[in-house]
Specification:
Elements (H helix, E strand, L loop, with lengths): L3 H8 L4 H18 L1 H9 L16 E2 L2 H4 L11 E4 L10 E4 L2 H15 L6 E6 L1 H4 L5 H13 L5 E2 L5 H12 L4 E7 H10 L7 E6 L11 H12 L4 E5 L8 E3 L5 E2 L4 E6 L13 E8 L8 E10 L5 E6 L14
Parallel strand pairs: 1-13, 4-5, 4-6, 6-7, 7-8
Antiparallel strand pairs: 2-3, 8-9, 9-10, 11-12, 12-13, 13-14
Helix pairs in contact: 2-3, 9-10
Length: 330
Amino acid sequence: MLQPALEKQVFDIQSEQDFEKAALAVFQFQAKQNEVYKRYINLLKVNTEAVTCIEKIPFLPIHFFKQFQVVSGKFEPAIVFTSSGTTGMTNSSHFVKDEQLYIKSFLQCFRQFYGDEKDFTFVCLLPSYLERAGSSLIYMMDYLVKASGKPQSGFYPQLNDDFFEVIKTLQQDKTQKVFFMGVTFALLELAEKYPTDLSNFIIMETGGMKGRRKEITRTELYEILQQNLQAKAIHSEYGMTELLSQAYAIENGHFYCPKHMKVLIRDLNDPITLLEPTKSGVINVIDLANIYSCSFIATQDAGKLSIDGSFEVLGRVDHSDIRGCNLLMV
């Protein structure tokens, strides 16, 4: 069952009032049509009719995407995105009803913060993502690479001659707008082994170390990349398998959400309690593009909201520290 009116409401959001109305409409739809979410709501003893503001909406623990098929309605998925993981781990699966919904979401996100994708050359240094199937990031970047229509746009699996030839060409043409997306460990290798001037590039790191290197703080990472690549700023993307939208940090690690996405911060020991801005806790995400899965997700990322609505990601919270996430196991 398609929800064209709901989709239009989500992607036409222009104000906080629009967001609240759309979020409540999506919640009522998913509370009825999503069997996993419905069961979770019932176990919490939440009266859905009494949910009249987003602060009262229950957030589904993200690990349920590993254990259940989290879908709203009945459909054959057009595509299934899966998370990365080490051997023996259970990966998350996101069953996407309509690929066009994902495309519309990530294009709206990108255009809000960067402009028209056709204005960019996309250089993608994403070796760990290319090594597996089901990556939503690879799907997004592949679309942007093709949509750009630029001859140098493409994926580069390693720091080889082809990669450096393209970088050299793009360095020389200062009129080119270059969007350089790299997994963190590969960008660090580039910066440490092959320092170069990428001051005319937008450099975006994503994905972390993927077990390839020792984790370092975001401040340390930015210092190394900015110094060795002569970058004015390092951009970051906050996205995941369970989301169809992305938040972007243009500088200083402060992420901003697109109009159809919002982050709230919950108390670590009381997942029902939301915290005021500037207080550290655990990130809850409202992604209204997730119409046919679940839009209200309690992540395992530690974070903090700023007064201006941006947020910081402070690290991961160990699963054993999160209370109240096992209700569906009883």
